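Onboarding guide, step 5: your first structure request.
Type a short instruction followed by the sequence, for example:

Predict the 3D structure of this protein.
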Amino acid sequence: MATATKVAAAPTETPARPGPRRGRPLRWLPLAPATVMLLLFLGGPIAYCVYIAFTNMQLTGASSTDFVGLDNFQRAFGDDDFRNAVVLTLVFTLLSSLVGQNTLGLALAALMQRASRPVRTLTGSIVIAAWVVPEIVAGFLLYAFFRREGTLNALLDWLGLPSQNWLYTLPILAVSFANVWRGTAFSMLVYSAALSEIPKEITEAAEVDGAGGLGRFWHITLPMIRRSIGTNLMLNTLQTLSVFGLIWAMTRGGPGNRSQTLPVFMYDQAFNKSLIGYGTAVALLLLLVGRCSRWCTCG
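The system replies with structure tokens like these:
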């Protein structure tokens, strides 16, 4: 009988489990300088402004700054001028952002989608030119347009229509129109990009089924760009809430306080009346309004 051969079964080697990465904390090291800079130059001023809002700090006439708690906020809610500024801010935002820029931007985008290339180029250049103009320059241009001896009244006189001092009789409508004129380009660009993403096959199929232009727009176009509508409303609302230079150049919040929105009221209290603590408290309330508007527009 042949000698038995011994077959040594090789033990199965289990792969070694990787140990913990010792260099993992080092991957955050390149972000450390940026984090420090953000905390120092962004977080620091924000924290200091929050502190100022709870003090009676003044630019002039006060030798010391004391902590007053919620007195500035209680004063704001009991101030008739503050409540007037809140109402005017809501009117200004509703007219110029939610209705004006949003509606006109969507209309321009829809019309330019059907227009020829030269018309699209010319219209886009004119609308975007108003957007790239600095805010203070746009304010002076619209001031020259609406003033008593301005362009608008000259056109009305030439047409034989009655004219008036628009910056005195309807100041909040004048600054709202100015903001629409300047900011519609952003909405137009957002909606142009959104409309270009809608497949043509869907609209062509709806047209074959007998849907008219208004029906296709209401039942197909609007539902398919609803995310773009929400994003545009949020960004436009936040931008409109912070408009200051345009209103300051045109009316300075006047006549009286008939066009004094919250940013103008905040500036007037903080720098014209030297009430830094009170003005900063109003700024925090404006920040809260902006946060609430973001929740409302984004759902």
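Each response can be followed by summary notes, for example: The chain has 14 helices and no strands.
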